[in-house]
Design a protein that fits this description.
Radius of gyration: 40 Å
Largest sheet: 5 strands, mixed
Shape: rod-shaped
Strand content: 15-25%
Strand order of the largest sheet: 6-8-9-11-10
Number of helices: 9
Number of domains: 3
Order of helices and strands: HHEEHHEEHHEHEEHEEHEE
CATH topology of the largest domain: Heat Shock Protein 90
Helix content: 40-55%
Number of strands: 11
CATH class of the largest domain: Alpha Beta
């Protein structure tokens, strides 16, 4: 631009003997930089590389001049003694593009890094899922052998006229072990959903758990007195209820009140599991469903994350902490769509 201003000065002050070929070439070669030439009072007397239509509108011309003033310091030159002119110029499109190029380049690098990280994370998670699924299936297989033996011993007890009540309780526990075995065998596989009465399925799980826990826990169950049909896998659904109940009892340290309430809201059926335990801080409402998160000294922190997966991924339902107060209790809510 300094060369351009010198060329302008040369042309303005030139006489018949002045060589002007080079100044003209310098001026004509500028096809990208927007320029406005003004007099001492900043009145526009010329322009270059700016839309002619815009410059023909006085208001638009002033706006463009104001913009160029902000972009670069003007070049002032004296073309005759005591007479000055100002050259205001902006950045070319190429220079503007170069300004944003490093930002665009960094964004591309960041995007590439995120893609690599997501690929690595997905691969790692897939490997871990396969490992856990393999371990679960192997556990189910190992449990199956002694379980078959227990079923045989149960038949022997029946033949020896052992008390019916004793045999019935043993049968319940063996059935439970069979359910647990089937649960583990289903990990990593797509579960088959059946049309079931969710009230009956919930109550069956509730009654079994109620008979297995301390009398210091006051259980209560409330539900509509008519069938409510839902697509679910009974074995996995009972597992999710069991996890919530056990989590609540742990929160109460084995002593308190636990209530399961089933309510209907429009096309949804909702199961509320409420305890009188230690409660959950609000900032942990979502974190408690993450794998490995636990507030207990012992435990893997998998119960609630597994429940969330069963409810949301396998049954297309929703689970959340409905409300909780520290040292007062917590209510978990599971929602399913009715049939």
């Amino acid at each position: 631009m300094e060369y351009w201003s010198e060329a302008q000065k040369t042309l303005i002050t030139s006489d018949i003997n002045t060589e002007v070929a080079l100044p003209i070439k310098i001026i004509e070669d500028n096809k990208t930089i927007p320029i406005i030439l003004t007099d001492e009072k900043d009145s526009i007397i010329g322009h270059n590389n700016i839309d002619e239509k815009l410059m023909s509108i006085p208001k638009e011309a002033k706006t463009i001049l104001k913009k160029l003033k902000k972009e670069n310091q003007p070049i002032k030159f004296e073309y005759v003694p005591g007479k000055f002119r100002n050259i205001y110029y902006g950045n070319s499109d190429r220079l503007n593009n170069l300004i944003y190029f490093p930002i665009a380049f960094l964004l591309i690098i960041l995007l590439f890094a995120l893609l690599v990280y997501n690929f690595y994370r997905s691969t790692k998670m897939a490997t871990e899922n396969k490992l856990w699924a393999g371990m679960a299936k192997e556990t189910a297989h190992q449990i199956g052998t002694p379980l078959s033996s227990l079923i045989g011993w149960l038949e022997i007890l029946k033949a020896q006229n052992v008390s019916d009540s004793t045999v019935a309780e043993i049968e319940k526990d063996i059935d439970r072990l069979q359910n647990i075995t089937e649960r583990f065998s289903k990990i990593g596989s797509e579960p088959i959903l059946e049309t079931k009465d969710i009230i009956v399925e919930t109550e069956n799980s509730f009654q079994y758990l109620q008979s297995r826990f301390s009398k210091q826990v006051a259980f209560s169950f409330k539900a509509p007195d008519f069938p409510v049909l839902v697509s679910l896998n009974p074995i996995l659904f009972s597992w999710s209820i069991e996890n919530l109940v056990k989590n609540s009892i742990d929160a109460m340290k084995g002593k308190g009140k636990l209530a399961i309430v089933i309510i209907l809201e429009g096309e949804f059926v909702k199961i509320n599991v409420t305890d009188s335990g230690k409660g959950i801080p609000k900032k942990q409402f979502k974190k408690i469903f993450e794998p490995g998160f636990t507030t207990k000294k012992r435990g893997w922190g998998l119960g609630l994350s597994l429940t969330k997966r069963i409810v949301e991924e396998y049954h297309d339902g929703r689970i959340k902490v409905l409300n909780s107060e520290v040292n007062k209790g917590t209510t978990f809510q599971i929602s399913f769509r009715k049939i």
